[in-house]
Amino acid sequence: MPPSPATRRTRPSRPLGRLSPAERRLWDAYPTGAWVDLRTGDPVTDDPAGGAAWGPERTVRAEVVTALLLGAREAEPGTTPGVRLAGAHLTGDLDLSDAAVETKLHLLNCRLPGVVDFSDASTRGLRFRGCALGRVRAPRSTVDGLLEFDGSSLRGLRLDNAHVTGQLRLSRAQVDPPREGDRTGTTMQDVRRPYSEAERRERGLDDGYRWAIWAGGLVVDGGAFLRGLRITGGLRMVGAKFHGGLYLQRASITAPGSPAAESPTDGSARWHAVYADFLEASAAEFSAGFTATGTVRLRGARIAGVLSFDEAELSAPDRSLHLSHMQVEQLILTPASIEGEVNLGYSRIGVLMDRPRVYPDRVHLNGLAYEALRGPWTVAERLSWVCRDPDGYRPQPYEQLAAWYRRIGHEPDARRVLLAKQRGHRATLRPTGRLWGRLLDGAVGYGYRPWMAGLWAAILLIAGTAVFSAVPPVQIDPDEVRHFNAFVYTLDLLVPVSVFEQRGAWEPAGWTRWLAWTLVVSGWVLATALIAGAARVLRPSTAA
């Protein structure tokens, strides 16, 4: 029976030939896991960026490392084998795809310009510290322990559907998009149904050459520490899960296709610096100097703790933040600067902490629900915030804000918000509706300022009393004995239904007829406005 694929990947596929002195040192050190340090001690000379000039005394074939990790040498009893190598120039590709690696790999200040391939592999801890690497591929791999690239430079990193049981570390790393020449292998296709262009993008067969990091479906059980990371080409991690949190403080990410990026692009790029729909994390820190040139998209994300953009710098030609349909316990939206619209639509936020100056002129808030607001805001600033929707008037943001003020016992502020809502709605009505709305607003503030009706009534009463005292009306029935009172007569005209029976007893004279008619009409308008306003105030709130 032929050996299984797993068995084939546990031994080197061909003889290694004669080992160089550097390779011999590594070969001899492997059984005990001892360090092999080929560095000179001069930081400038030992910088792997200039590793192409290192001589044969510091050169190791990548296939020798592959052979050791696949079991070419046995461990010594009572020791832990492993590859620990510093200051080496590794030639060729480090191919461990489909392998089951039981020992750790730790490279320090090494140069490996070829492809590092852990596709579909199962490995122990992998550490590349301060290295200059080519393309790194680890889709569908399992790393039992730490996966580290701290301080390293890479030409593309694929971690889609990978599982890291420990931490993922990319602090101070530099990741650029892969180059066309970095492609590994040939994509096998079904001749009956070849991939369409859209399918190739969805599978990352083409898009991988635009995105610096492609990590859709990645699962990291420990924390993902990407502090100080530099990415030119964008970070894609749709559906990734970070159970220990995602930390991108001081990171800088440039979208693929932007003028600052050197990668090729097409019309589908849309300037996404971070594309992380449906991401799940216990916490996510895009803060403390985090910089994104392009859209940061977290649509449908689930953050159990804090999502912070405190002191971040965000810019995009159209939309800087796309945070719609999220669920987050606390959102800290206090960036140092922001250019491009913000979308918070249909998200559910426990505590929203923000500042008035952070928002651009275009903010999508329709459907947003929150439990609490924190920050140095005034009611006027909050009203300016809810009316910035580029799609025009939306009632829900006003209702949500009014409900928040009511929950904290600020009923006057809630009424002020609802009055602003009615004024915003008025602009969407036909001319007759707008006219009636202005009457309601001017008379009683749409029912939210009922004291205005009393003010208008007092003004009309004073005016009518003064006029009819100076120009008394004529008694209609001279034979009836009545005593005229200008105040009572004016009040009877204002009341929609005659209470004091003054209208039918006295007839205004001359131009005062216009005043009498005005008082009658004003009385009906004020009464109708009060009834309509009361019905609106007493109507149950629809806020979430």
Itemize the secondary structure elements and their pairings.
Layout: H1 5-8, H2 21-29, E1 35-37, E2 59-61, H3 62-69, E3 82-86, E4 89-91, E5 94-95, E6 104-108, E7 111-112, E8 116-117, E9 122-123, E10 126-129, E11 132-133, E12 136-137, E13 142-143, E14 147-148, E15 153-155, E16 157-158, E17 163-164, E18 168-169, E19 174-176, H4 197-202, E20 213-214, E21 219-220, E22 224-225, E23 230-232, E24 235-236, E25 241-242, E26 246-247, E27 252-254, E28 272-275, E29 280-281, E30 284-285, E31 291-293, E32 295-297, E33 302-308, E34 313-322, E35 327-333, E36 337-343, E37 348-354, E38 363-364, E39 369-374, H5 379-386, H6 395-407, H7 411-426, H8 431-444, H9 451-470, E40 474-475, H10 486-494, E41 506-507, H11 512-538
Key words describing this protein structure:
41 strands, 16-stranded parallel beta sheet, alpha/beta, 19-stranded parallel beta sheet, disordered N terminus, single chain, 544 residues, 11 helices
| Quaternary structure classification | single chain
Helix-and-strand structural type: alpha/beta
Query: Radius of gyration in whole Å, from Cα?
Result: 37 Å
Q: Tell me the strand percentage band.
A: 15-25%
How much helix, percentage-wise, in residues?
A: 10-25%
**Terminal-residue CA separation:** 66 Å
Number of helices: 11
Mean pLDDT: 85
Spans of at least 5 consecutive residues whose pLDDT stays below 50 are 1-12, 260-269
Protein name: Oxidoreductase
Keywords: Membrane, Transmembrane, Transmembrane helix
Organism: Planobispora rosea
Transmembrane segments: 451-471, 483-502, 514-538
